Backbone:
């Protein structure tokens, strides 16, 4: 029973320990430690005192064990009766629980425990700042800081200290403890002083030590952000000056110290502010000078104490300085439209120079002309703009520009009139974007010696400033200029004019953008003619203000119902296109993409259906096709049926003199394509050529073949016999039929008088016949209509065919005359 109670008691004690870890004593034992908070890594000792009434020690053989963070450590010895010690040389854990156990041979029961924390001293507080709040009542000083890096779970306390000397020079020291885990504190009014230095610091403290922040020395007013001042009025009694009367807010009027004052001002039609700084007490007026006369200014003010933060800007006031007459000169630019005419139109532009002062908000300009023979001024223009157009006749020698306001007028500015025309422009001009608001223009001239200056002119082609022309007069030695104050995505026309001694050169112009992007919209597609195979598309030009750049081209995308796609490119100057090779009766989705150098934009999709092929179109297509095929097959059929007849016209039979004779040529086949003779009805008697018979002198007969020449052919339109003067009747009738169109086909040359001429193999000479030959003519063929010499070289004579030497004399003669029927009358017997 006693053992059971002891066990139950040990379990209850264990449960109690789990809920109360800081328990140091129990009914059975008492545990003590040398320190419950120690630096990390230091040594610590603990002791366990066993009480006499502890039932766990009633049995013999018990012993004591220690656990640290649920792990057993070495056994300790009893230092005295019932007291058991343990010593830990290096405590490396931040949380440590030492437990004392009473053990026997079977079980161990916890009888006591102690918790020991290990850590570091607190971190030094950082970034201590203080800011006074004058709007609170009473006024407070709010200080904030950072705790620094957390090194352990040991509780840390923070204390804010303020030290200052009061009016009696007595040191005052106050300590303020913020709530736990807070890093700021609002110091009440008694804890600080104004307009005098004070010290502020923070102390952090825990069980292991304390740290102090850096000392902050300050005047609380330096941290104060004052309220925005109030401008009570602005005086304008002095030319070019404005005088401001001002005060602090009602809750801060008690401040009488000197303050820093900043005033910013600008003309009402300008965007750039100018600033002036002063040091004044709140009861003093502030005077700003150096302003333009007669100009309305917007003004605002803000204040601060020494280096404190600036207050917010005050209310805006508008005041006008006293007015004076305009002073200074204007920069002018005069252009003549069609200067060759008698009374050209003049365009005059001007702008203020650096020395010009309008001295008023409202000014006007007067343009006057003075003629050649009169000193009276003629006013041609009165305007409040900075440009004017008027007619200028040839007798005008001087043009004057005058500025006027309510206080007076300026001295007139003389404008030079350049009348020479047709002068050369610059040789090179290039404009490139420099930024989103500026353009860089470069130019070059061939001869700068005759140029006095350049005029760079630019104007917007659309938008609010479309009619505004800006210009700059550039020295002749300068070849580049930056045009600024432009708007992106807007087109500008920029030009350069060379100024000569008596005239203005022709302009060199270019249209550019400072920056480009995709067009704002793409043109709407309109359809024209629609057929089964093509669609005609049109579109209008994009408005200039919506282009956002220079149009580089268009692309037309189209797709049919089967997702077959196509693309058609066009140039930027073309605004119509024809889509070809399309399918009939098909719906196409079409859209237009417009591109610039800055991007592209797609237009809306248009659905167009191609037309279908009707019966009339089918007839127009089928009938010509059928007629064409019929003619083709008819022609092919005719070629096969009339093959021989077609062959005679397309491939005529051309005799080959080398493999034929005259008799063979006169066959019926060769006569089919020849026209019939009018007088001779017998088709078998055909005279193919004329025969010339030459008889050489006796002196030449001995020379034989050496002296025969065939270069010259005597022919006068008749057949001539060298030995007989009697004309040949057959030859004359043949000549009438041929009408002097035939030429001698051959010449028979006799080396002896023909009566004594022995029968020899015939020698034929080739002639320049009008009938085409198959083979190429040889160089030795005789030429037409050349006289033959008395000496004929037989070696140069060419044979039409070889002569058969094995024939008898009669056979030879028979063969010769058969081949040459026209020479049959000249046949002679060798005996005679």
Residues:
């Amino acid at each position: 029973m006693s053992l059971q109670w002891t066990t139950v008691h040990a379990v209850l004690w264990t449960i109690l320990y789990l809920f109360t870890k800081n328990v140091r004593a129990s009914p059975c034992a008492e545990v003590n430690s040398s320190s419950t908070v120690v630096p990390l890594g230091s040594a610590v000792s603990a002791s366990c005192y066993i009480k006499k009434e502890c039932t766990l020690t009633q049995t013999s053989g018990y012993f004591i064990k220690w656990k640290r963070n649920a792990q057993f450590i070495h056994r300790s010895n009893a230092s005295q009766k019932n007291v058991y010690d343990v010593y830990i040389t290096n405590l490396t854990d931040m949380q440590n629980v030492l437990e004392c156990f009473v053990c026997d041979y079977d079980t161990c029961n916890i009888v006591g425990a102690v918790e020991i924390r290990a850590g570091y001293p607190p971190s030094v507080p950082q970034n201590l700042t203080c800011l006074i709040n004058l709007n609170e009542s009473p006024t407070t000083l709010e200080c904030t800081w950072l705790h620094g890096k957390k090194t352990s779970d040991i509780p840390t306390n923070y204390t804010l200290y303020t030290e200052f000397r009061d009016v009696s020079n007595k040191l005052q020291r106050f300590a303020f403890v913020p709530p736990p885990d807070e890093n700021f504190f609002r110091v009440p009014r008694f804890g600080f002083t104004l307009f005098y230095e004070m010290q502020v610091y923070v102390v952090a403290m825990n069980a292991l030590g304390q740290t102090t922040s850096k000392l902050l020395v300050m005047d609380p007013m330096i941290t104060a952000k004052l309220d925005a001042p109030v401008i009570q009025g602005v005086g304008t009694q002095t030319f070019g000056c404005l005088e401001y009367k001002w005060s602090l807010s009602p809750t801060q009027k008690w401040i009488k110290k000197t303050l820093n004052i900043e005033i910013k001002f600008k003309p009402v039609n300008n965007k750039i502010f100018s600033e002036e700084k002063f040091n004044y007490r709140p009861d003093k007026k502030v005077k700003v000078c150096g302003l333009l006369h007669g100009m309305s200014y917007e003004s605002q003010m803000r204040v601060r104490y020494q280096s404190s933060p600036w207050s917010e800007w005050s209310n805006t006031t508008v005041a006008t300085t006293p007015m004076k007459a305009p002073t200074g000169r204007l920069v002018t630019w005069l252009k003549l439209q069609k200067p060759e005419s008698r009374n050209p139109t003049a365009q005059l532009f001007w702008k203020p120079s650096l020395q010009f002062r309008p001295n008023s908000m409202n000014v006007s300009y007067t343009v006057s002309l003075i003629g050649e023979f009169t000193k009276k001024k003629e006013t041609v223009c009165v305007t409040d703009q900075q440009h004017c157009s008027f007619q200028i006749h040839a007798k005008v020698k001087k043009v004057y520009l005058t500025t006027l306001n309510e206080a007076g007028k300026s001295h007139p500015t003389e404008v030079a009139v350049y009348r020479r025309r047709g002068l050369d422009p610059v040789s090179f001009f290039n404009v490139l974007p420099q930024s989103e608001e500026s353009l860089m223009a470069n130019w070059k001239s061939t001869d700068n010696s005759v140029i006095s200056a350049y005029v760079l002119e630019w104007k917007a082609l659309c938008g609010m400033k479309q009619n505004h022309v800006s210009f700059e007069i550039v020295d002749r030695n300068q070849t580049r200029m930056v045009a600024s104050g432009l708007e992106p995505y807007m087109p500008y026309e920029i030009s350069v004019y060379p100024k000569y001694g008596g005239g203005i050169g022709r302009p060199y112009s270019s249209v550019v953008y400072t920056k480009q992007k995709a067009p704002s919209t793409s043109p709407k597609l309109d359809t024209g003619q629609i057929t089964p195979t093509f669609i005609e598309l049109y579109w209008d030009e994009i408005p200039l203000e919506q282009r956002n750049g220079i149009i580089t081209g268009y692309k037309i995308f189209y797709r049919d119902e089967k997702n077959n796609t196509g693309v058609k490119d066009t140039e930027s100057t073309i605004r119509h296109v024809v889509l070809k090779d399309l399918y009939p009766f098909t719906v196409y989705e079409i859209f237009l993409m417009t591109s610039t150098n800055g991007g592209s934009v797609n237009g809306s999709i248009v659905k167009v259906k191609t037309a279908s092929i009707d019966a009339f179109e089918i007839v127009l297509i089928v009938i010509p096709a059928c007629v064409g095929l019929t003619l083709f097959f008819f022609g092919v059929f005719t070629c096969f049926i009339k093959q021989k007849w077609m062959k005679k016209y397309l491939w005529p039979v051309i005799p080959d003199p080398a493999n034929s004779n005259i008799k063979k040529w006169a066959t019926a086949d060769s006569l089919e394509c020849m026209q019939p003779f009018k007088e001779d009805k017998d088709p078998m008697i055909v005279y193919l050529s004329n025969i010339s018979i030459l008889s050489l002198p006796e002196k030449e007969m001995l020379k034989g073949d050496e002296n025969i020449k065939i270069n010259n052919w005597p022919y006068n339109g008749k057949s001539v016999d060298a030995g007989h003067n009697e004309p040949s009747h057959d030859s004359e009738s043949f000549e009438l039929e041929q009408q002097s169109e035939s030429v001698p086909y051959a010449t028979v040359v006799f080396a002896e008088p023909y009566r004594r001429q022995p029968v020899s193999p015939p020698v034929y000479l080739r002639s320049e016949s009008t009938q085409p030959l198959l083979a190429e003519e040889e160089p030795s063929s005789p030429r037409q209509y050349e006289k033959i010499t008395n000496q004929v070289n037989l070696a140069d004579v060419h044979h039409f065919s070889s002569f058969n030497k094995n024939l008898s004399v009669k056979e030879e003669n028979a063969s010769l005359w058969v081949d040459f029927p026209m020479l049959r009358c000249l046949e002679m017997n060798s005996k005679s």
